[in-house]
Amino acid sequence: MNFKGYRWRHRHRSWLATGQQVKEPVIRIALAGNPNSGKTSIFNAITGQHQRVGNYPGVTVEKKFGRIFYRNRILEVIDLPGTYSLSAYSLDEMVARDFLVNEKPDIVIDILDSTNLERHLYLLLQFQEMGVPLIGALNMADEAESKGLIIDVENLSQILGIPLVRTVGNKGEGIEELLTAALDLYNGRLSSSQRHLNYGVHVEEAHNQVIAALEQDEEFTKKYPAHWLAIKLLEEDPDAQKKVQQEHTKADTVLSVTESVKKNLTRQYQTEARNIVSEQRYAYIHGAIKEAVRQNPPTSPYDLTERIDRIVLHRFLGIPIFLGVMFLIYQFTFRLGNPLSDLIGNFFTLLGRAVHGWLPEGILQDLISNGIIGGVGSVIVFLPLVVLLMLGLAFLEDTGYMARAAFVMDKFFHLFGLHGRSFIPFMVATGCAVPGVMSARLLANPKDRIVTILVTPFMMCGAKAPVIAILTAAFFPEHSALVFWGVWMLSWLMAFCVALIFRRTLFRGEQTPFVMELPPYRLPTLQTILLHMWQKAREYLKKAGTIILAASIVIWFLFTFPHSKANDTGVGSVCQSEILAPAAQGGSYAVRIGRAVEPVLKLAGFDWKLGVALFAGVAAKEVIISTLGILYGIENAAAPAANGTSNLNIRDLLRNDPDYSRASGLALIIFVLFYTPCLATLAMIKKELGSWKWPLFEAGYTLTFAFLLAIASFQLGKLLLV
Amino acid sequence: MTNTNFPKKSVLTLDKLAPGSHFCIQRIRAHGEVGQRLLDMGFIRNATGQVLREALFRDPIEVILNGSRISLRRSEARLIEVILIS
């Protein structure tokens, strides 16, 4: 770790320890920049471990911020979403824009990739247009220098009228200078010019006319910088138009003035006004770079990135390489994660037993050992998988490979109305739907993201796979492998078809453009990756954990009450030795519900036992088999299965049960594959999409869909399978 | 692509270029979000670039423009009028 970085992180810590009081107001600094500008590394270098994660109000865009103590001042650093531009088309851009307009941070630091100034200065100019107090960080300066790029920082700073600081975020270089510049700008010792580039006589004239129209409403221009909004109106920005329409007292005048000047410009320049605006920005940038940057010697376009891409993006090798990479990530996660999950699971089983032994017999004992410990256990069991997978995906994202993966897979997914990046959540969900849903964050378009999240739980995850394996072995002993494979294929097929249906019905609308940057390959720093992993773990435990715990207790209640000492059919039964006792009259609420809905279940060839087991399976799919074991024990109290959960026993019990035919077996397999996802997944859907309506919709539509499929396959099966 | 003597009236668009071709942008025909994205990525009049490669099934394509690699679908490239340069 760099000495400087350490020093002032250390200073921060000592401030925390002494609890020193500072009276002056907090200085709020917003970090902005393109997605691949190394913004995260600068943010990490400034805030270190003192980061917090929240959401921007009303949206599920992640907001990272942190407070540090620097030169007797408290600085609050807010990490804005990375964007290429400040148009109003993506959620990230809207969030960044609204934050700057509404929250008016004291300082905005724009992180620029020094190796690609052309693209990155484009965003800087847009911040300058907004009139925010701006500093530019010429980041990755070391990389630029090693490429032979010589940037005359002072000259460039003068041309742009914006203070610039040379930084190397992942080594902590220049951070001290950056913060000093921020303080100087705050205190007025440094100035950041709000002058803007000249768009040429005609555009300037048009611009002034729009400004004049805007300034008729003083309240409005106090809220939104007129200069900026006028440019946005010329650019046909839908959000700017909306703001004027809704809030400007003379909206009609403003919009008609804008329309007429835009028409004039289009006639004069033979192209739309917004094209002229972009062209002028780029022309200005080219000029600035020409004056202040020297390329020595000129780089060859066949750099390392190009050499890697020649293999990785090869027309025919691309997809196999991508599948191989995913396979490695997958292996890494589940090979390493499953034993850890098992360990955690065993630990909670033992803990449950131990606690069960310590506590006096009664409802409390059962609640704690089965309900709470079982419930908490079922949350933490997923933790290793979530963390490892997020680690793998963060690595792919930070190196720049993820954009390549989207490039390679896009054609196929586009056929089903999805984006190339949707592949990742699908693939992840074949291991576990919880991180699958989380990884849908890679999708920028909200519709793509919702559709992907809604269908990923169809994948055959690690918990469903053994259940389905036992069921296929029970009902199709001669062709179990073939049936299993067919069912696996069916899960992909259905996920795609349902995605397509959603995209054509509920989530219609223009698809996101695929126009995106393939960033140069870079190795992420260990600190970035570890911080990322830690945040994910904490987030998962905090948000998903509470919901799952509450739900586990509800399910425990349904399976335990009305309470009778002998009626202990706890879900995720930690103490299965308890189950041997005969059922009380009527049984628990869960059993009663199962019996009540049996007539409906009969349509798909299920009886009440399956109903109860499938209901328990909503807690966690593994539980389906163990609950069946318990229920067979209850029903057949004279000869209870010695160990209710023994897979062999269940298989034979199912096979020999006269109530079930191969047709009902097929229906059962299909139902298990597609019905309501487990609580952990539903909790994650709530967390990711921010509203209860989504997990409820998910639970409802999958249940209906699965049941209809089950009825169809049962009725067809009765005809075809003898 | 060596076919430079196409009829005058037909307009060459970026999606028609083979990998390796160098081009100069003449006009952007896109509107709305796609249009804005293209502008933001530097697809403006007189910008020059090169088609680098295409994915399996020839879609999407990758071009290099102003030193950045940018991928776009063929349907999006169709909205960019270009001329070939050597």
Main attributes?
heterodimer; A: 722 residues; alpha/beta; Rossmann fold; Helix Hairpins; 32 helices; elongated; disordered N terminus; B: alpha+beta; SH3 type barrels; five-stranded antiparallel beta sheet; 15% helix; globular
Topology at a glance:
The complex is a heterodimer of chains A (722) and B (86).
Chain A (H helix, E strand, L loop, with lengths): L2 H16 L8 E7 L5 H9 L3 E5 L6 E9 L2 E7 L11 H13 L3 E7 L3 H14 L3 E6 L1 H6 L2 E3 L1 H8 L3 E3 L8 H13 L13 H14 L3 H6 L2 H9 L3 H10 L3 H19 L3 H20 E3 L8 H9 L5 H41 L4 H18 L2 H17 L1 H15 L7 H7 L3 H7 L6 H10 L8 H12 L4 H25 L11 E2 L8 H35 L28 H8 L1 H4 L6 H9 L6 H13 L11 H10 L5 H13 L4 H11 L3 H28 L2
Parallel strand pairs in A: 1-4, 1-5, 5-6, 6-8
Antiparallel strand pairs in A: 2-3, 3-4, 7-9
Chain B lengths: L21 E7 L3 H9 L7 E7 L6 E5 L2 E5 L1 H4 L2 E6 L1
Antiparallel strand pairs in B: 1-2, 1-5, 2-3, 3-4
Describe the structure concisely for a colleague.
By secondary structure, chain A is of the alpha/beta class. In chain A, 62% of the residues lie in helices and 7% in strands.
How would you describe this protein?
The complex is a heterodimer of chains A (722) and B (86). Chain A is of the alpha/beta class. Among the domains of chain A are: 3-187, P-loop containing nucleotide triphosphate hydrolases (Rossmann fold), CATH 3.40.50.300; 201-295, Helix Hairpins (Orthogonal Bundle), CATH 1.10.287.1770; 552-720, no CATH class. Helices cover 62% and strands 7% of the residues of chain A. Chain A contains 32 helices and 10 strands. In chain A, the strands form 2 sheets. Chain A has a 7-stranded mixed β-sheet, with helices on both faces. In chain A, helix 11 (238-247) packs antiparallel against helix 12 (251-269), helix 19 packs antiparallel against helix 20 and helix 30 packs antiparallel against helix 32 (693-720). The longest helix of chain A has 41 residues, at 318-358. The radius of gyration of chain A is 30 Å and the shape is elongated. Chain A starts with a helix and ends with a helix. Residues 1-19, 565-585 and 637-647 of chain A have low confidence and may be disordered. Chain B is an alpha+beta fold and 86 residues long. Chain B has one domain (22-85): Roll (SH3 type barrels), CATH 2.30.30. Chain B is built from 2 helices and 5 strands. In chain B, strands 4-3-2-1-5 form a 5-stranded antiparallel β-sheet. In chain B, strand 3 (61-65) and strand 4 form a beta hairpin. The N and C termini of chain B lie close together (10 Å). The chains are: A alpha/beta (722), B alpha+beta (86). Strand 10 of chain A pairs antiparallel with strand 4 of chain B.
